[in-house]
UniProtKB/TrEMBL annotation:
This is Adenylate kinase. CDD domains: ADK (cd01428). Its EC number is 2.7.4.3. It comes from Bythopirellula goksoeyrii. Monomer. One of its GO terms (molecular function) is AMP kinase activity. AMP binds at T31, R36, K57, L58, V59, G85, F86, P87, R88, Q92, R129, R140. It catalyses: AMP + ATP = 2 ADP. Consists of three domains, a large central CORE domain and two small peripheral domains, NMPbind and LID, which undergo movements during catalysis. The LID domain closes over the site of phosphoryl transfer upon ATP binding. Assembling and dissambling the active center during each catalytic cycle provides an effective means to prevent ATP hydrolysis. It is found in: Cytoplasm. SUPFAM superfamilies: P-loop containing nucleoside triphosphate hydrolases. Its main location: cytoplasm.
Amino acid sequence: MRIVFIGPPGAGKGTQSVRLAKHLNVPPLSTGAMLRDATAKGTELGIESAKFMKQGKLVPDKLVEQILFQRLDDPDCAEGCIIDGFPRTVPQAEALDQWLAERRSPLEIVLELYVPFEELQRRLAGRGRADDSQEVVKKRLRAYDDLTRPLLDYYQGRSKLHRIDGLGSPDEVFGRMLAAIKSVEPIQG
């Protein structure tokens, strides 16, 4: 099963995506981790990406796509994966859909881990990081919302989007994710 996982900073997306990948026995693919790995390995794409990251710039869509698509071609992704951190824009979503369609490996579901703005602010402020001041947190969450809204609309229009309530215990949230996935395709085991 191929799943895209979307959620704002502080929603618990990283933890839940890894847990879900383990449950489904598919690899969790974090674009951030893939970029860091490609850079550490000194691959051609990693060296190119590092130029942007060192300047504090976003790595261009095409580079991120190349790194992700190379990883999706690995044998351990043949039965599916959980994609975290991609797509971030509608053009990236369209590129992913096209790439998967060419391989007859469609995206089955998009899970949006939803947590109300006030709760996200509380969670992020509670982490105590220097870059998590209340004003910085508000800006990051607004930027995330502005960037993500068209992407959520894109997937909603394709009947792929399932909003998961991110409030409650980690087990409750995980149970909601499994229920959404079961509504698309029964999970074995």
